[in-house]
Amino acid sequence: MRKMLLAALSRVLQGPAAAAAARPGAVSEVSRVVVASRNYADFASEATFDIKKCDLHRLEEGPPVTAVLTREEGLHYYRTMQTIRRMELKSDQLYKQKIIRGFCHLYDGQEACCVGLEAAINPTDHLITAYRAHGYAYTRGTAVREILAELTGRKGGCAKGKGGSMHMYAHNFYGGNGIVGAQVPLGAGIALACKYFGKDEICLTLYGDGAANQGQIFETYNMAALWKLPCIFICENNRYGMGTSVERAAASTDYYKRGDYIPGIRVDGMDILCVREATKFAAEHCRSGKGPMLMELQTYRYHGHSMSDPGISYRTREEIQEVRSKSDPITLLKDRMVNNSLSSVEELKEIDVEVRKEIEEAAQFATTDPEPPLEELGNHIYKNEPPFEVRGPSQWIKYKSVG
Amino acid sequence: MAAAAGALRRLVRCGPQQGLGRRLQLRSGIHGSAPAAVQVTVRDALNQALDEELERDERVFLLGEEVAQYDGAYKISRGLWKKYGDKRIIDTPISEMGFTGIAVGAAMAGLRPICEFMTFNFSMQAIDQVINSAGKTLYMSAGMVPVPVVFRGPNGASAGVGAQHSQCFAAWYGHCPGLKVVSPWSSEDAKGLLKASVRDDNPVVMLENELMYGVPFEMSEEVQSKDFLVPIGKAKIERQGTHVTLVSHSRSVGHCLEAAAVLVKEGVECEVINLRTIRPMDVESIEASVVKTNHLITVEGGWPQFGVGAEICARIMEGPAFNYLDAPAVRLTGADVPMPYAKILEENCLPQVKDIIFAVKKVLNI
């Protein structure tokens, strides 16, 4: 009886929150509404958890081995990770229907990384990553509908349909980069700007286990360390660079040590609290002027490298299933919250329902929004330039270009 | 007497080639002799431009190999590190791909970097960052992420530096939408274009020429001003003419003017156009000139295939000027070989004044 009453109460209180959740950046508002309702005694306000100790490189001390999770935070992380999970699965669906074209690199399985990182930094900090970027586009403030509409190539996409899957940008989020490893020097350059402007901001520069063998990354390690740039180098090690396992690609698979003179930590990337605490630790290091740090997040992608890769020719279905059943980041958080009275199965189910609805609505938008007008073809060649003409496929076809 | 001695000293110091260039400048009458005009080398003009732009905008900084404590491999940044310090003038390790990416990232985050390549041959190592990161990002982000970075350094042939150090990249970078590409010849060009490039909110590739660094040009008082800019995308008519249009960029402009000075004795008046900008190219100026002269010759140091001259010819074919051509357009280019070392071979791998004169006579059938 009590449970039913509480469930009803929870639904009533989350009513306005569901509407709020449809707007970008509104997740925190949802949490605020929830906070107001948490006065009933069944839920704890916070709980402390043991988290895995990080392996350390050139560090005497590492991040803490316990983490405090408030109910508010937990619900926020859960909702965010679930949103990304469902968004990626919807993208899979749309790709198979041929509504999304070209490259599509999905992030499901790795949600704890992008949500954990964001939880540890400020919106005024900067982040850049490679092409498996949909999760980051969301955590950095892009609405789901704008992400999906970018994937379907519509004018309502976050880059007006001109970028596609690998080229989504937001405030203090520099993509979405297609060339493996190229984003790493860019990230150090952003960190240089942070230091130059003196505003205590840092840059999180992400790359994968495949990219970790790129020469330009070592050039960047050198300059970042030399000039003490406030840059956290983050290797998202999901064990496979396309179809090549880490053992077959790297003479040393201790990616957190590959920065040599740069201190590094190896983090359980499936545990959002581990990611959050490690990032706080690294951010503090950078902000204090000590120079760069390297984090290796051990994570896993359920999908293949991209939608054209079934992902089972170089790994077994058993392996994928094992990770799903034992290490799924959303399940891990859910179990923690339910077992420690931070939430209930019903409450989290409610969130699932709301998220599904949000994704459906976003997909509806993404499949009905019109494609960009042809005039858009010539735009954004130059910034702050008087309008000029851009050549089309022949001398008689011209487009006007405005920045 | 003292004035003559002074003139002689200047000629001797500059060397015969450069002195000739200077005399041509004065003779051409384009600049004239304004009361406060001074002789400034291309090197000093670039140095002034850097100094002025660093002073004007705190977000501007210079990075590259040897730019700071060495005063610049070619002394272009002489004195700047002493004046502005480590924050604004940054010596990099020999890591082109890395530091070019760093420059581009810094531009994305709101700074205005000038990224020096010791020569553009080394930019090949970093070309992905120039084209894919700098050139395309504004478009891919639908206008959200501008990249106000300048890539500059010596381009093309030098003297005896061999094949790997002599390539011209005008066609390579000029090929790519999203970039602007400029190529100065004179000191006025160098100063005005560098300043304009730094103030431009887009990625600009500035192709200088090492052999021009030591060449002095007259700079009027107007050009000396701190706000003098050369507009990007506009060619300059260096010499008016009626019989044939010579279009060129960078060092070859000087050769065209020399050829014009010889040809004028035979009654041939060449119109010499200094492109100044490779992309966006000022085709209109070339067309207007060809409509007037009915003959076109392009002159460049780069290789012939898919080059600047090839582009100009194609565009002339597509436009109104085609109907005014009395002969097919002609291209003078670098020889279609990697640059050899031996002096006699190297000399014959670039269009010389005699080649221009020969081509003019061929085209005019005289």
Automatic annotation (TrEMBL), chain A:
Alphabetical GO CC annotations of the entry are: mitochondrial matrix
- The record's top EC class is oxidoreductase
InterPro entries to which the protein is assigned, alphabetical? DH_E1 (IPR001017), PDH_E1_Alpha_Subunit (IPR050642), Pyrv_DH_E1_asu_subgrp-y (IPR017597), THDP-binding (IPR029061)
Give every Dehydrogenase E1 component domain span: 79-374
The main location is mitochondrion
Q: Which PANTHER family match?
A: PYRUVATE DEHYDROGENASE E1 COMPONENT SUBUNIT ALPHA (PTHR11516:SF60), PYRUVATE DEHYDROGENASE E1 COMPONENT, ALPHA SUBUNIT BACTERIAL AND ORGANELLAR (PTHR11516)
Protein name per UniProt:
Pyruvate dehydrogenase E1 component subunit alpha
In the UniProt record, what gene is named as encoding this protein? LOC112108244
UniProtKB/TrEMBL annotation, chain B:
Principal location class = mitochondrion
- Would the keyword Transport turn up in this protein's UniProt record? no
Keywords of the record, alphabetical order, are: Carbohydrate metabolism, Glucose metabolism, Metal-binding, Mitochondrion, Oxidoreductase, Potassium, Pyruvate, Thiamine pyrophosphate, Transit peptide
Q: Name one GO biological process term.
A: pyruvate decarboxylation to acetyl-CoA
* Localization per Swiss-Prot or TrEMBL: Mitochondrion
The keyword Oxidoreductase belongs to this UniProt entry's keyword annotation: yes
InterPro entries, alphabetized: PDHB_mito-type (IPR027110), THDP-binding (IPR029061), Transketo_C/PFOR_II (IPR009014), Transketolase-like_Pyr-bd (IPR005475), Transketolase_C (IPR033248)
Q: Name one GO molecular function term.
A: pyruvate dehydrogenase (acetyl-transferring) activity
What superkingdom heads the lineage? Eukaryota
Its recorded reaction(s) are: N(6)-[(R)-lipoyl]-L-lysyl-[protein] + pyruvate + H(+) = N(6)-[(R)-S(8)-acetyldihydrolipoyl]-L-lysyl-[protein] + CO2
Gene Ontology CC, one term: nucleoplasm
Q: Which residues form the Transketolase-like pyrimidine-binding domain?
A: 40-215
Q: Which cofactor does it need?
A: thiamine diphosphate
E.C. number(s) listed in UniProt = 1.2.4.1
Coiled-coil residues? none
Q: How does it assemble?
A: Heterotetramer of two PDHA1 and two PDHB subunits. The heterotetramer interacts with DLAT, and is part of the multimeric pyruvate dehydrogenase complex that contains multiple copies of pyruvate dehydrogenase (E1), dihydrolipoamide acetyltransferase (DLAT, E2) and lipoamide dehydrogenase (DLD, E3). These subunits are bound to an inner core composed of about 48 DLAT and 12 PDHX molecules. Interacts with DLAT.
What role does this protein play? The pyruvate dehydrogenase complex catalyzes the overall conversion of pyruvate to acetyl-CoA and CO2.
Q: What is this protein called?
A: Pyruvate dehydrogenase E1 component subunit beta
Q: Which organism is it from?
A: Terrapene triunguis (Three-toed box turtle)
